Amino acid sequence: MAVKFAQHNAKWYYYMEILKTTAFAIIAFFSFVSAALSEAAASSEHNFEGSWITSDEFAMLPKTDMFHRQLDSKRAAEVAAAAKIKNRHILFRKTFELAAVPENAKLFFSADDYAKIYINGKFAVQGPAAGYPSHYLYHEIDVSKFLKKGVNTIAVHSYYQGLINRVWVSGDNRHGFICDLVCDGKVLVKTGKDWKISSHGGFSEVGRAGYDTQFLERYDAGAPEVGFERPEFDDSNWGGAALAESDYKLFPSPLKTLEFETVCPIEIKHISKNRILVDFGGMYIGYFSMSAKGKDGDVIELRYAQELNSDGSARYKLRANCNYREFFELSGGERDDLNQFDFKSFRYAEIILPENSQAKADEKSFKLIARHMPFKLAAKCRYQNDAKAQKIWDLCVRSIKYGVQEQIQDCMEREKGYYLGDGCYTMLTWCLLTNDYAPMRKMIDDFLRTSFINEGLVTCANCSFMQEIAEYPFMMFLLLPVLEERGGADAEFIRERLGGFKKILDYYKSEYAQKNGLLANLDKWCVVEWPANWRDGYDVDIAEGKICKTMHNVINAWYIGAIKCYNKTARKLGEPEYPGEAELVQAFQDAFYDSQRKLFKDSAESSHSSFQANIFPWFLGLCPDNECSKNIVELVRQKRMQKSLLFTTFPMLASLRRDGEEQLLYELLTDDSAWLNMIKEGATSTFEGWSKDSKWNTSLFHLTFTYAAVFMVDWDVGKALDLR
Question: Which of 33, 40, 294, 692 supports an S-S bond with 298, CB 3.0-4.6 Å?
């Protein structure tokens, strides 16, 4: 079946306006030009001559859609029951001859769910990022350096997970791989029935990690498919690939492919006769690599950890409710190399050799292959001579560098979710540190596309588990004034997407607005702050999985704040504003403002005044007077970081900077109970809380808290997000 492609028109940005500002803006301009040219080049449409190929198992299966809403338990159960095929490792190979090495050779490829590609035995690339069939990405990469005169081999390790989770659009019976190899302008190799195919028998399941997000692996080095990527591998007994009935619409990826970095251990320690602990010096995302020798059937146990137990062993049962315990079965050959497909988040690896065995591990082979998006720091910490601030800055920069993958993930081990709310804060950090706004533009488009599932947006994109959180769509509106002011997108890009943002507001208004315009009866989870013990006693029943009938403060503050962001951007672009802003502000103050105490209440029915009920209205420009703002600042002075965690801290710090409370801002950034406490507890990446024990399932590599760096650059995010 022919694959349809949508046209992509490259857009140019308002460079001259940037040039009129500061020297920093000039630097930003040239950086953005380079990125824009690169993006435009990568975005030229490629019409594939190759076909989607798959296995016989998948070729005849009916395609299904896995999308469901969080509160639709019946649909969720039906979807889960329908996903029967899981954890398939499927290999493809193709040999071809070259009379000479081409001057220019490009590989165009895509895969569902995912693929690693080898050319002449060397690893070349992996991808793509998850996507919906209606908008699926392909990559274009230069492969000239991998090719040679004579016989060449392309080998592909594709994967179909089949689980309903926050990582993949899987469980839908769609699997396949497509590619064209274009040499000097001509398609030389393309996918079709002439490609060889085999299942990889070396991978088997030994459990699952996280919230059904990852299969733990047992790798058999004696499987007949081991070494399939090598040119000399004998595939004569392999069958031919089947053609997949494809409903994919392919688009060029706006982002570069991942980079890979080899990390050597800083320490190798023998903790007993058959147990070896490897320390890589910091947290990374990637794969453990090692070699070993032993008799056929010897099994090495591998444990990966983010921290150590009190006895010095690897704590492979992670705080984030993940179990990182895998196995490496030896073949009896002279040397067996461990192969891992899925990545993990770890610092330590513990190797447990079988007792009473001659099996030996080659300690010189111990390595960690870290993966991350290409990262180039383009910002400086404004607290140059402050040791405390510099430690926090370094922590956030390192976390962003090694944490950001093909798309923003909240944590690296549990959900690995492309969460909208978490992602907005993390994306701001990435963009301010790198001056690269292509991921932000992609993120906006990724989430606007989810409207085909739910007009009000889902909170996890490009996946099959549709958890919904009420505030998250409104948080994305914060990106609009930042994009506009920073020159992260041209006016046309923003203008074309205003309609999608308006549909979100329309949906909430039509579904949940009461007579006074405020929202109630939300059939989405109103998270406010997470976990519940950090909500400062917020006096509203917002239990997950329940309809929140109460007209309460935080969701309405976000709703009105989103309208304010929309209108601020629309005015600058000369576009119509969203109606009713002034009336909603008044309705909010009438419902929630306590004129006696000069503070906001949690709900229209409650007299309780929590930290969250005041921070969000303050941030979103809803205070009726200066006295209210001053009272909230005093509230911040009193409670400091005691009731401020993932979602409240950012608006609190942004508001302090906007209002000129620089000393208090600095005090909170460098408070011993916050980021510095993470560092005190040994953090090399930002935690999911102020300490390892902040919550019962704390991730020790969580990207949300990298936003401390946002307030440590010269550019004032508080001014950009001033909605008063």
Answer: 294
pLDDT exceeds 80 at position 375: yes
Query: Under a CB-based contact definition with an 8 Å cutoff, are residues 271 and 156 in contact?
Result: no
Contact 566, 505 (CB under 8 A): yes
Tokens of 421: 């709310």
pLDDT at 75: 80
Cβ burial 662-685 (10 Å sphere, 16+ → b, else e): eebbbebbbbeebbbbbbeeebbb
pTM given for the model: 0.92
Q: Please report which confidence band the pLDDT of residue 99 belongs to, taking 50, 70 and 90 as the band edges.
A: very high
Using alpha carbons, select from 609, 610, 605 the residue that is nearest to residue 594. 609
CB 716 within 8 A of CB 665: no
Q: How do residues 590-639 score in pLDDT, each as one tens digit? A: 999 999 999 999 999 999 999 999 999 999 999 999 999 999 999 999 99
Query: Using CA atoms, how far apart are residues 387 and 390, in angstroms rounded to an integer?
Result: 5
Q: Is residue 61 predicted with pLDDT exceeding 80?
A: yes
8 A C-beta contact, residue 665 and residue 653? yes
- Which regions of the chain carry the CATH code 1.50.10.10? 387-720
- pLDDT band with cut points at 50, 70 and 90 for residue 44: low
Residue ranges of the chain that CATH labels 2.60.120.260: 46-257, 261-372
Report the greatest alpha carbon distance in the chain.
Answer: 86
Q: Determine whether domain 387-720 maps to CATH 1.20.120.530.
A: no
CATH number for 261-372 (one of 3.40.50.2000, 3.30.70.270, 3.40.50.2300, 2.60.120.260): it is: 2.60.120.260
Q: How far apart are CA 345 and CA 283, in angstroms?
A: 7
- pLDDT band at 2; cut points 50, 70, 90: very low
Closest Cα to residue 262, out of 280, 244, 235, 242? 280
DSSP letter at 232 equals T
pLDDT tens figures, 268-297: 999 999 999 999 999 999 999 999 999 999
Instruction: For residue 555, give Cα distances in angstroms to 225, 473, 524, 591.
Output: 54, 11, 11, 13
Lowest mean pLDDT among 26-30, 154-158, 299-303: 26-30
Q: DSSP 3-state assignment of 290?
A: strand
Tokens at residue 544, please? 């997950």
Q: Which residues contact 479 (CB under 8 A, 6 or more apart)?
A: 424, 427, 428, 440, 443, 444
Cβ count near 136 (within 10 Å): 25
SS (H, E, C) 561-589: HHHHHHHHHHHHHCCCCCCCHHHHHHHHH
Contacts of 209 (CB under 8 A, 6+ apart): 215, 216, 322, 323, 324, 344, 413
